[in-house]
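REVIEWER CHECKLIST
Item 1: Sequence provided? yes
Item 2: Single chain? yes
Item 3: Sequence as submitted:
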Amino acid sequence: MSYRKEVIINSIKCVELNLEEFRFEYVHADKLLICGDSVFVIEETSSPEVKDVKKITNTVEKLRSGELWLTLSLVLNYERAQATKNMRYYGVLHKNRRGHPMVSKVLKSRATRLEVPMRVVNCNDELRSWIRELIHR
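Item 4: Structure as written out by the authors:
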């Protein structure tokens, strides 16, 4: 499986990075979807748990600190990796079925603490709709 692929979502060019391919030693989300200056940190799960929220928040913190961008600068162009201060981050918990009832509360709490919008989505259409809504603001 490739770690990088170009995707178009609602006529918006994006880059999808599979973070699982990098084999980081720390807890991280499954993938990043980078659409211009918007970065969607996505954790995919069949049944969401509180630990899945931690993967999203840890990845956002690594991105904000610049630590993760150093690694990603090898994959992305150098200019984009340098523009981290202008990036807007969003957390996405992409699920297939109901999860633990505390997940939504923890997600909302962490979103408030990090000042990062986060959302639970059930399908790719719902994710695309949210991306369109956020980018066309």
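Item 5: Key structural point noted by reviewer: The first strand starts at residue 4 and ends at 9.
Item 6: Recommendation: ____
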